[in-house]
Amino acid sequence: MLMLASLIETIPARPWSAAFSFSPHIKHRESPLIDVSLVRIMSASPDQQGTRQGLRVIHAGLYRTGTMSIARAYERLGYKTHHVSTVNPVKTPWVSVEHAAEATWPSIPGLDPSRPRPRYTRADWDAAWGEYDIVTDLVSPFAPQLIEAYPDAKVVVVQRDFDPWWASMQGTIFMFLDEPDAAIKRFVGGVLLGIRGGHAMRKILLGFFGVERKEDITEVVARAKYDEYYAQIRKMVPPERRLEYRLGDGWEPLCAFLGKDVPDEPFPRLNDTVAFGLLAQEAGKQIIQTRIKENAPRLLLVVVVLVAWFMYRRSTL
Q: Which residues form the signal peptide (predicted)?
């Protein structure tokens, strides 16, 4: 056990975090866009942080549309905000997200169509995110459902031009569908460490794009789904409850829409590809180390069994 504990303390950030985080394959280097406070660990439980009335603002902006920058802006304006890179990954309700994906897209490969999961309700969303005012990137594909569940919430729509968005997705988020690499990571993370992030992201991506594998997400398919998503949001939400925010608009339109004073500081600009990767690596390191410590007895048993099997095999040769 002492040997395992020592091993845990010496886990390098790069190999483990690259396997389980939202990280593109990049070389580590310094970036002026990184704010180390974005990888803080929030130790207080939901009960300790007080009860909430549900989401006050619905962020309708898909992955890779500046979610990290605007998440920091929301926080600066006083909203309790969830972004996968700023909250303890262990505390992210991955199982709830995975179940929501199964309920939303029952055609996801591997699901039993004869046993569909009930569609998520307001109570389900409250149970998962009730402590937050705003949830940004992780549940953005579910924005239409959130709009139905929270009819009084304001909606901030953030849309990039398709071409740069498509290029960004291919270099980052789609790594969750890189087989067999991703399948191995899901097995190790899900079975050995109890991390469902890879499983949840795979189901969201395949379900959202309506495909069975990564190769089916062509540029034509992606563009159609991208346009369909934003058209649906605009159809559901009247102009008086909706802000059309473009990256680079700054504080003024956002603060006017939310009824907040304009901060006397530059609007956050975070999450270029390098910053995205480095922050994800740190978050990945946190989740791996936490899970290994929590599951040390099980992992030790696995190590003992593997060593015994190896020694047995050697003795029979």
A: none
Burial 159-172 (b: 16+ CB within 10 A, else e): bbeeeebbebbbeb
DSSP secondary structure string for all residues of 40-81? ----S-TTTT----S-SEEEE--TTSSHHHHHHHHHHTT--E
**Coil vs helix vs strand at 26:** coil
Pick the CATH number of 35-316 from 3.40.50.300, 3.30.930.10, 3.10.20.740, 3.40.50.150: 3.40.50.300
pLDDT at position 178 is 65
* Three-state secondary structure call for residue 120: coil
Q: What is the spatial distance between Cα 194 and Cα 267, in angstroms, rounded to a whole number?
A: 37
For the chain, the helix, strand and coil percentages under 3-state DSSP, each to the nearest 5 = 55, 5, 40
| H or E stretch covering 245 | strand 242-245
Report the pLDDT value the prediction gives residue 53, as an integer from 0 to 100.
73
Reported as a pLDDT band with limits 50, 70 and 90, residue 199 is confident
Q: Cα separation of 210 and 222, whole Å? A: 10
Q: Is 26 exposed, middle or buried (0-12, 13-18, 19+ CB in 10 A)?
A: middle
DSSP structural state of residue 192? I
Structure tokens at 37: 């406070």
User: On the CB side of 222, how many CA atoms lie within 13 Å of its CA?
Assistant: 20
